[in-house]
Amino acid sequence: MEKACNPSRAERLANEDFACLEKYIKEFSVLYVYTHQASSKDPLTKNLRKSMTKNVKSSAHRSLLNPENRGKFGRNDGKFVDDNLLVFNFVKDDLSKNASTRIPARLFEPLASYIKSIGQISCAEIRGTCWLVGGMLVITNYHVYMLINTEREKQQNPNLPITVSFDYLRSGQTEHVVTVEVDEEQDPQLGDSRLDYKFLRLKECEGIQDRVPLGSIVQNRQLQEGLVIIVGHPKGNEMQEETCVVVSSYSWREKLKQRHDKCIEKYIHNPDPSLHMTNDRLLRSGEKYKDCVPYETSLFTGASGSPVFDLNGNIVAMHTQGYTLNTESGQCSLMEFGVHFNAIWEDMKSKERYHDVEQLFPNYNLEDMDIDD
Question: Looking at the DSSP assignment, which residues form a beta bridge with residue 340?
């Protein structure tokens, strides 16, 4: 045992220390037990132990998910029985949560072109994100538009201009930013509060005429897992990009409830049981977010309206609101969502805006496109 832990170690361990170390080793990956050289200068800290334990869990989970090992679990025919399926889903979710956020380098070039069509929409103190769909039309969240109306009422000025700034890429940048005013007299009257989308028309501007209309890369695809890329203006800052892990569709409600309860316990000393998420509230959340894709992201206020890209470089959703909880320390975001474009498309058709669908989203019904196509 001594040699396995540290071949160069000369002193012997006391019995109680030996038993304690043996307990920890049972939690660790074999790889870490043989490679980590614990010493007084590099002690076996709590964080290190937790990291090791996490590694061995992930290693075991990967082993379970390995197709070559599938037949070793459950029945002899290799099929998962109910209990094993629960374990399988838990393991799959655990790996997704810690999944690598690497993206293919081939996305860099098209994304560099697409970000020129993404702008920051603003009116007085209100900030959000929008993007060119086609012609001079941009799309953003309906709640951003309503916040603008509320801001106008607050300042008692219904004529406060709504502007969109493109090429805002550096903090405090004032030069080389193209700012265009929204043409409210030409409002397309197209949007929906439930699906949280709103189209607006910009005034004519030569500075944006050659930019890629992103409606052409919108796809009718509902993501259930994997990675997405969000590009927007969080907190009204310069444009930022974040690669996010999609929360598995089978587990997001359970995860949402767990995070809700943990947040309550963390921020409220004497939690009121009525604040905890009940099954009824979960059902209502399920209805509210049924047309959305849930994911892990740090892009909150200001990123509303951001396009959500898949790893083929297509837009599959628009970043909307998350499930938030007001605490003593401020607002806590438990999970963020993007509304799928297939839901927006169906809503537009229900409003008899078929021509707009065909004109703004010309490739919407095609099979999933790859940026190399």
Answer: 317
**Could you report the per-residue pLDDT of 90-128, keeping only the tens digit for each?**
444 544 444 567 788 999 999 999 999 999 999 999 999
CA distance 236 to 122: 9
Q: What is the CATH number of the domain that holds 266?
A: 2.40.10.10
> Are both 208 and 233 inside the same structural domain?
no
Domain of residue 183 covers: 105-218
Rounded to whole angstroms, the Cα distance separating 65 from 60 reads 9
Nearest to 193, CA basis, from 151, 145, 160, 244: 145
- Distance CA(316)–CA(308), nearest Å, equals 6
Claim to verify: residue 230 and residue 336 sit in the same structural domain: yes
Q: Which helix (H) or strand (E) holds 57?
A: helix 46-65
Domain shared by 144 and 239, yes or no: no
Which of 246, 366, 244, 354 minimizes the C-alpha distance to 314? 366
Q: Does 269 share its domain with 308?
A: yes
Q: Which two tokens stand for residue 203?
A: 């005034």
Q: H helices of 270-363, where?
A: 279-288, 341-350, 354-360
Give CA angle at 197 (196, 202), nearest 5°: 145
pLDDT band at 234; cut points 50, 70, 90: confident
Name the DSSP letter for residue 290: T
Q: Which amino acid is at 24?
A: Y
DSSP state of 250: T
The 3-class SS string of 151-210 reads HHHHCCCCCCCCEEEECCCCCCCCCCCEEEEECHHHCCCCEECCCCEEEEEECCCHHHCC
Q: Is 64 domain-assigned? A: no
Do 240 and 210 fall into the same domain? Answer: no
